[in-house]
Amino acid sequence: MLKEKLQEIKDSNTNLYQHLNNVLTKILLDNPKNAFELFEDYSFQVKSSGFSFDKYNEFDNAERTKISMDQAIQQKTLKLVNKINLGTDEEPQEATQTGYLPNLTEEAYLYEWAGIGIDENYKIFKALSLLSVTKQASKLRFWGKIMAREKDYYIAEGVANSQVEDGELPPEVEPRGSGVNTKSYWACTDILNDKDWVELPLITPQQINVSRQIKYMFTGNLEADVITNPYFFGKEKHLLKAQIVRITQSTVIIPKGQYILREGEPREIDQTPEYKLPGFHELKTLNDWMHFNTNILNCGRLVHLIPSELPDGVEPDIYQKQIEAADPFENRLKQLSNDKLPNNKPAWKIRIVGDTTDYNPLAKDTNNKVNNGVIIIKSLVWPGLVTVYSNKVLSQLYYGYGFKATTNHFYPKQPQQVQTEQPDLPEQPEPNFPAEVPQQQQD
Amino acid sequence: MDISFNDLKFIQQIGQTLNMEERIKLKLAILKIQEHYTFDEVLFWGRVEGVEKDYYIAMGIQYKGQYEFPLKKFYWSSNNYHFAELPKYNEEYASRADNLREPFTGQHEHIVFKTEEEINFEDSLDIPAQLPAKHFSELERLSYVVQQVEFNCASIPVGSYRLTPTHELIRKAFKGVKAELKNYQHFRVPTRKDKQDLIARDEALYREDFLDSLVDDTPNQQWSLQADSTQRNITLRNLIWPGYVTYNNDYTFGYAYFGDGIKNSDFEFLL
Lengths: 443, 271
Known about the structure:
heterodimer, A: two-stranded antiparallel sheet, B: alpha+beta, 5 helices, 19% helix, globular, cytoskeleton (chain A), cell projection (chain A), Radial_spoke (chain A), cytoplasm (chain A), Radial spokehead-like protein (chain A)
C-alpha cells in the first residue's frame, strides 16, 4: 500500500519510491560518516545525476570494460607461446630451420641485476624465433626497445637472407652486407603479430649525417614523415635505422684481447686464436674492455668512397690519402677508458653487482671456478645502452628513446631566410592618347 | 609503488626494474621509516640513477586528519639503504637546476654549481668563524627534481580515490579504467580553477575526477599511453621526464620514477 502511494508522487522521470530507493542505495554504497547531514545533498545529487540503483552495476565505474581479455589477443598469445606452427591448426607444419638465437629468458635474469627489466621476455623470445623462421634470418638477437610516443618499437638484429634483392643503389650507399648496412634490423610494434616485423631499409650517408644534426622523438609509425630542419630525406623507418646504426657502431664492446688487429691491415680484426673468455676478476675495470666496431666517418660511411673516375693527374693512392687525412679513421679496438665526454668525464660507467664471492677459487680446472658477480657497463653517451657480463655470458641491449646525451639544449636549425620579394615597380597609368583624329584627307 | 614490488612488471615496459638485492634492502629500509614517523602509507617512489651510485626515494603519505589533500613526505637514500628526510632546496637557484643536463654523480655533497650567497651577521656580538658559502649541492638538485616530477607528473587513474565529506582522501576499491588520457588525474592539490571550484562547492564528493585532469596539461603530447601485449597492463609515461610511469591494470594502480633525473627540456622541438 505504501509503495503504491509513494509511486504516485511522481516527476517526469521518476517517482518518489524510486528516488528514495536510489538515494538510500547511494548512501549505502558511499558509506559516509556524516550521512545524516549530507542526506539532502545526496538527494539533490541523485536527482541531478540521474543515478538509478537497478541500473547500477558495481563494475561500471569510470567507463571500464569488463575484466576479460580480447578473444583475439588470447588466441594470438597462445599461438605465439606454443611450438612454432607454420601451417594451420588442422595441418600443423613444424619449423625446421631456426637460426641461432640467444636465450633471452636467461639473459633477462642478468639484465635484472643491472636494473634493466625486459617485460614479456618470453613472448619476445618466441616472436624472434618466429621471425628467424619466416624471414630466414640468421644470427638474430634482441637488439632492444626504442620507445616512442604512440607505440614502442622492438628491434631485432641479424643477418638477412642472402637472396633479398635491393636493386640499383646510388654509388655512395654502402650495399647490404657492408659498411653501415652490414647487419639488418627488423622493427615491430606488436609482438603478437608475426607479420608486423618490418625490415628496416638500407640507409644513405646523407641520412646518417642529417640524423646527427636533428633530435626527433619517434611516433611509433614507421611510415610517418620526419619533418625537421635540416630536411631528412626519408621516413621514420630510415631515421630509426640511422639511429640504431649509430648506436651500434659506437657502443658494441668486447673484452680486451678477444680480437686482435690483423697484421698489415690495421683496420681489420681477427679473433684471437685460442682465446678463452676471462673470468670475473679480469674484467672489472674499463681498461679491460674495447670497442668492437669501427666508428662512422664524418661522411656517413664506414669506409671512404673512392670515386671510379678521378680527376686527371691524380693517383688513386694519393687521393685516398688525401680524403683519409680530411676525414680520419679512429683506431680500431680502442680501450673504453680513453673515451671521454665533452666535459672530460668518462663516457662509460661500470658497476659490479650481485654475489661476488669466488666459489672454488683453488680449483685447478678453471671451469670449476665460479663467480656469480655481474659486471654492468652502461654508456653515458647513448643512455640506455647496457652491456652485462657474468659467468662467461656476454650480452648487450638498448632501452631508450634513441637520443644521444647532449650537454646543450637542442635548438633546431633555423631554416634559411626566404628572400623578400622585390617591391613591385610603382604603377603608372596607361598612356592615354586622345583618340586618333583622322587626318583630313588632302587632295 | 607498493613495497611488495609486485608492480615491477609495469616498470619493465620502459626497461627498468629493481634487482633482488635492491628489493630486499629497500623493503627493510622503507619499513624502518615507519619507526620514526607513522604514516598511513609508505611507498617506494623511485630511483634516480647516478654515475657512481644511485639514489632511492621513498614517500610517506598521511591521509587521516589532512584537509583537502594528504601530506606527502619524501625520504632519500644512497646505496647504503639508509633513508633520511629529503631537505628543502634553495628556491632561488632551483630554476637553474631545471636545465642541467649532466647526470647525477651519486655523491650527494657534490657541488652542482656555486652560488654567491652572502651570509650576513648583523649585530651579532660574537663573530662566528668564517662560514663557507653554501653552494647548491647535488642533494638539493635531487630534492628539486623529486618535487618537480611529483608536481608535474604524479598521477593516478580516475576512480582510485574518493574525497570524503570531511575532505579527506581515501582509497576506493579500484576496478580499472579504460586506457584514455581523460581517465587520469594529477595526484596533487588541485591548482586549476575548475577543480578548486568543484571542491569548494562540495560536488567533489560525488565525482571521481575531482583532481586536475591530465588532459589540460600543456603540451598535451607529453603523455604517452601504452599497454603491453595483453592490452590490460597500461602504462602512462611522461616524455618530458622520461622514466616517470603511472601504471594500472584491472586490480592495481600506482606510479614510480625510474630515470636519470634529467628533464627533457627540448621536448617541444622533438615533435
